Amino acid sequence: MHIVEFIGRILLSALFLIEGIGKISMQEDVIMYMADYGVPEILFIPAIILEILFPLLLIIGYKTKLSALIMALFTLTVAIIFHTNFSEEMQVIFFLKDIAIAGGFMIIIVYGPGKISLDHYFKLKHEWNRLIKKN
Fold this sequence. Notes:
Elements lengths: L1 H24 L1 H10 L7 H17 L3 H19 L6 H23 L6 H17 L1
């Protein structure tokens, strides 16, 4: 089951990595899209960093719960800002997709990354060092 947790983190993260990297080459279009929704241009670079950095952290399982929290909040924010025109069927689908993805991140927040992660490795290393010092 540990491999399933790892694959789940990869699948949740892949969308954001692909989108974040893709937005770099479409900077002008993305900034115009953001402006259409009242989002200032200055948030473009932080959004790109967020969409690349935190999914990478999720994949390797480092600071996993914090990364999942940040990604859940980001995904919910994106849903609320960009996908609440419920008169358009595609916007409803995008909104529900974002809500579902945020739910996946929330599961990671509660249960953590599992055994295939740096968080688990560092936890074991810490416990091992504590046992050695104790004896």
